Amino acid sequence: MMSCLWCRSSWMIICLTSHLLLLGLAGSGVLAAAPRTPVNVPFGRNYVPTWAFDHIKYLNGGNDIQLTLDKSTGTGFQSKGSYLFGHFSMQIKMVPGDSAGTVTAFYLSSQNSEHDEIDFEFLGNRTGQPYILQTNVFTGGKGNREQRIYLWFDPTADYHFYSILWNLYQIVFLVDDVPIRIFKNCNKDLGVKFPFNQPMKIYSSLWNADDWATRGGLEKTDWSKAPFVASYRGFHVDGCEASVNAKFCDTQGKRWWDQKEFQDLDAFQYRRLQWVRQKYTIYNYCTDTTRFPLMPPECKRDRDA
Ligand SMILES: *[C@@H]1O[C@H](CO)[C@@H](O)[C@H](O)[C@H]1NC(C)=O
């Protein structure tokens, strides 16, 4: 019965008709809430450059930065701290104009061999053609969970919020306030791991991936258009900082993201997720029967996986 609630909240009504006793419990679903509004903090508060330091430009006293990709190199940065759970957000304005072949990434990753990872990857395109947002989740070193969507706005025109809410119950990918993907911690019995005991760092980078990114690698980076520039601000990190080898976080279970209203999406959020699925999804590994003749286990149970 719990899995009914946990894994299929969008089907809550169906569950409820067969489990009237759960009415009281499920009613608490209306308490579900969007994550806290990210706080704008300067880059240097939470992040350091990772490589090609001269390709990062600091503006507005370090509140804004720009990553530059040219023929010689891309660049990237990473969080100072490692975190077990929390809410991580960034405002990004993607490479404008002809960005085909470029990839801008924002992701969380643990540092060990059987690593966990939560990815946003923005695949550029020719001028006027739509970006693709690809997401993925690795657990215990296993990925292959790609989903791809088009965005409902031009991500090069303005800054937008890209955020991850990660707690013991779920991982939620958010674009502005819209949940575009969830990965729930309810499939342990099917052998699906959930990231819960390996702290992750936050990373971002801009690099050339014209061997695969745009129309599967058909569109190459036009270096005559370089440098390619992605702009960032709002380096919000609200996580439980933990040493790299920690297995749990000191305040686990006590922080805002652990509370009931963040353990599942509410009905409104599920409707928005459905809207993204129906109107903007262009690829979902769950429905790729050529690649996965046996449906990945988490997809069987959770249509929102
Ligand atoms: C780029 O534009 C083409 C043509 O509209 C489209 O098929 C493709 O999905 C777009 N995005 C990427 C990253 O290839």
From TrEMBL:
Pfam families: Glyco_hydro_16 (PF00722), XET_C (PF06955). Residues 9-232 form the GH16 domain. GO terms for molecular function: hydrolase activity, hydrolyzing O-glycosyl compounds; xyloglucan:xyloglucosyl transferase activity. Glycans are attached at residue 125. Keywords: Apoplast, Cell wall, Cell wall biogenesis/degradation, Disulfide bond, Glycoprotein, Glycosidase, Hydrolase, Secreted, Signal, Transferase. GO terms for biological process: cell wall biogenesis; cell wall organization; xyloglucan metabolic process. Its EC number is 2.4.1.207. It is an enzyme of class 2 (transferase). The keyword Secreted applies. It is found in: Secreted, Cell wall; Secreted, Extracellular space, Apoplast. This is Xyloglucan endotransglucosylase/hydrolase. It comes from Stephania japonica.
